[in-house]
Write the structure tokens for this entry.
Amino acid sequence: MAPVEIKDDYYDILGVSNTATIEIITSSYRRLALDRHPDKNPNNPGATAAFQLLSCAYQTIKDPDKRRAYDKEWPNIKRTQTAQKEAKRRQEEFAEAERKKAAEDNAKKQKEKCAREERLRHLERLRSKYDGDIFELRRVVRRLEADTKRLQDQDNEELRKERERNSWWAYVTSPFYAPQKETEEEKQTREVERLQRLASKRIKEQDLAEKKAKLQGWEDALKDTNNKIAADKAKEEEEARLQAAKMQEKLRRAKEARRRAEEEAAEEERRKRWEEAQARKQREEAQARKQREEAQARMRQEQAARAAREAREAREAQEAWEEQMRAWRAAEERRKAEEDRKAEERRKTEEKRKQEEKQKAEAEKRARAASWAETARKPPKARNEWFDSEVPYHSPFRGSGPSKTSSACRHEMFWPKLNGSHTCQNCHGIQRRFAFQCPGCNMIACAGCRQSLRGERRRRRRSRDL
């Protein structure tokens, strides 16, 4: 199983330097353990993990072997921790700057919003005032217009009556309808009323013109106020839209940042897994190489032991073989001596036998010569019988008398072959390679004597004669 990769700076956790002695480390551990014990920090959810990490750091550093192995990896861990702290510090500074900027922007926006709301409230109050004043002024204008119209109607009615009194119809009908003449006082009264109406009309018309001008100004001011309110509302809506767009952009950027962070984290995780896999592979390769070297060393030792054993066995086998060869040579020498002795005995026996056979053959020759001489003295019929006797075909005494071979054995069976050097018992010739032996009488003969003794040549001659 591969060892767990350590990523924490145990010296920093214990609050000591990497050159601290075990006494300093133990003292610092006991002090920190009292401070960070979970029982003394019940409201801290991470107290247990921190205390366990402190215990793991102390258990690693106090063991010389584990500390020596950790010190080999400590520079890389220190650099990694320093880089992580620097990155975290930069991130915190950037986050703090962003928070300050966001707070300032929010305060500025809040101030602008308050000013805009106050301005809108002022414009709303101004519009309400303009609306009320315009309503009242319009009511006054309508009253003045009604009064002016009433006075104008009175003047028109007065003019109509005056035209009727001064018309030709009134002149024509005056004899028949005598009109009532008005007095001077009535005329003066009617003139005074007319002048009063005219003055009142002029005053009212002047006041109406002033009121209309004032109404037009107030309507223009109300329109301008409405435009300002609409512009402020449009600006507010535009700012809200821009704020929403900025918020969406911020959310998009945050989402993109999270996605990039997740991708970077995934890439970092893949890189760490790859590095762990490479480290595990290197450890496995080193272990496999070590096992191969150990196996090769064992194999070499086994081969050396096997070679020594085989050499010992070969030496023992060589010694046994040499012993066997010596025994075999001794036995072979004894056998050769015995064979030489037997061969010498056979040679002597053979010489003796040959001598006896030679003497016997000379005796037989003499006997045949005597028999031939005796037969020569006999009549021709007896000589023809002698030629038909069993004398070997190649014998020098054929036709010179009867042969010794005319025994009870007819030599008609199959003669087996005898390999080796033999002497023909019929012609006394020495056969170097092979000879034949009659199974009936054990007679040894050469090939020609065998044919003669079996009567093969005689039968062939008779068959030719026939």
